Amino acid sequence: MKIYLVRHGESIGNANGIHQGQKNDFPLSESGKRQAELLKKRFENIKIDAIYSSDFKRARETAEFLSESKKINLILDLRLRERDFGIIGEQKDLMNAWKNYLEEEIKKGVNPREGRPVDGESDKDHFDRVNSFFENLINTYKNNESIIVVSHGGTNKVAFGVIKHFLLEEMYKTPQANTCVNELVFENNKWVVNSINNTDHLEIDDEIIDVFNSVRDEPLDVINNRCWEKHIKLKKLFEDKGYKTKYKICSFKWSEQKLPIEIKNLIDNDLDYHLYLIVKINGLKLLIDASNDFQLPEYNTWNGKNNCNLCVSPAEFIEENIEEIINKKINENYSSRQIIFLNQVNAFLKKLREKI
Hints:
Order of helices and strands: EHHEHEHHEHHEEHHEHEEEHH
Shape: elongated
Number of helices: 12
CATH superfamily of the largest domain: Phosphoglycerate mutase-like
Structural class: alpha/beta
């Protein structure tokens, strides 16, 4: 038996940054309908024996593109619904609220897997209903059937724990883009995963790649055109194109970067900060770093579907006071020793460019 486990297309809730869970049931956005149309084309020449879906609008509408194309009756199953966070699901910063809730439950001696908010589900509740669905599939299909299952990001992630592909503590880290396809095969009484989060059917926005390249290709200057200036500019350009972006920061040590020893010997304050961006595309939060310019070796490329590399070797990722750090760095007054050091780094970068 082969399972094509699919996440729904972009919903209106996704597009507006609204957590949906089970409390908010939005239909597909126009972009989500286009994604579903491309998903349908992906399966045009693949024989499908059954199609299952969550009954929520965003999943059901995605599945209907497939069922109508294949002329197969759609089977709605409530066990495929997204996780129900209960009253916590109404809060704007859901993940932070959930984290705080679990911390309080743990203090009471509650197993974090069994922490259940009012009107909601625990991790175990969610896991058990997804497990029940997969057990039914195993008991129902005994041959070489191919089945599409349209579900939600959180439920798909739990499915990887159910089939024991990821440990429980790792399954939630699985990326799941809108209309991504995960290929799972049940054979010899065990599950095999052939692919995860495949989005080959989705179009690449060449325009947004060009925007990234235009900022990246501006010559890097560690005094006047640093990661800070580049990414503040890039964030605005992305948002002008309708993409949601967020600043991210990591600390790094100059002594751990690829610099000549004579420059490292000039280091006064070794620890510094690096700014980059997270951009949301097709339901995924992708890391982008446009700090290097095209004249430097190992300059960054980005395809719009995956993370690109950080331009520094990070020491620690910073989660708090990001705006405060940005304001401090933008308005920073350099000491004379810092200026000497940064001028040396710029001279080093210039030599690298001349060798290209």
